[in-house]
Specification:
Blueprint lengths: L23 H31 L4 H29 L1 H15 L9 H29 L4 H51 L23 H4 L3 H8 L5 H13 L1 H16 L4 H19 L2 H7 L2 H17 L8 H29 L5 H30 L1 H25 L11
Length: 429
Amino acid sequence: MVADASKTRAQPGGTGGGRPDVPRRAYYPVLGTSLAANVNADFLTVAVPLWAVMLGATPAEIGIMIGARSLLPFLLAIYGGVLMDRFGTRRMMLIFTAVSTALVPLYPLSPWFPALVALQMMTGLLANLSWIGAQTLIARIGRGDPYYLGMFSFASRVGSIGAPAAIGLIWDLTGHWGAFTAATVTGVVLTGCTALVPRWAETHGLDPAHHPGAGERLGWRGLMPNLRDYVDTLALLAMPAVALGIAIALLRHTPQTIQGSFYITYLNEIGLQATVIGALISCSEVAGAFGSLLAAPLMRRFAAHWILVVFTMVAIAMVSLTPVLGGIILLLGAAQIFRGLSHGLLHPATFSVISKALPAQMQARGVALRTTGNRLGAVILPIIMGFVAEAVGVKISFLVVGCGLMAIVAAIGFAVSRNKAFVGPRGAA
């Protein structure tokens, strides 16, 4: 039995009830997994391309290496979610984080392109499954409450604000060995935070009939991918709240995808220096961290489904208007702040809508399904925008793609307004 003193205080929630009590012994280690997972990912995101350049890799090879990190997560995120629901999130996370951490020191020992691609595929998969696990833990112990999900998202974004600059400094001072050592250390910290999550955290306060399968025995039969698991997970899209959450999750990442590709190249073409471009992106990251904290108060006052629709449109509009702002740094900065606030708010809001629609034993599958949608958008949108840019030019492509995405969000909003499932302040199905 967990003592009352070890719990966070229940406070008013979005439907007139209180926030669920979350034991601090579970809550703080889970926040630690959020921080450590993003720092670890950001360290590798910077260190691996630098290592490839040092080895003399061509731009095409670097592109393949970076893309390889997202291939297996797109294909196997649902499989990983099923494993965590079946065998317990904490147990599977310990395996994923430990193996991923053990692979990182192999980077400086593998100066061959095929070996680096294989490492990227494996560490990318394991890192993404670890992130799915961390999100599943907070969804389960916080019962999908937007306050706890917002704090979790805030912790992850705080890590991402300083991590790229930190690993760049480490590389400059100590070279590739120091950088990959630092990445290994963050992996150890992530594994340690996972180990500190109590075994009872996932099942705390749940009816035994709804416990996730943390007591299931690991066996080859249960570990093998199964087509039925994919079909059952995709069937969750029949639930209106889940379908809305997945659609918004996919669209929410489109401005981020544009920013990571054509936004940077366009600003560079109109004469902005790399330092200014980096500062603009940093504005969105800082704003995103604070945007995460806005989800809970807004979801107490407004219907969750309209929050998702409205702020997705805001995020898309702020990046699509880039050519209209004429290279005026003040306006570009303001647009990045509003985009960052919207993007940061949408993570816990979308997360909460999906989490509240699913039982405890299906939380990891819900997170995995959302991750699959994110990856799908990240693969498709750059290709579409690339063809549009070739046809009408990069400047006009922002407006064309933006209008197309806004039309899709508007259609979703119309469908939501006609669906009787979206009632109440949280928009749960």
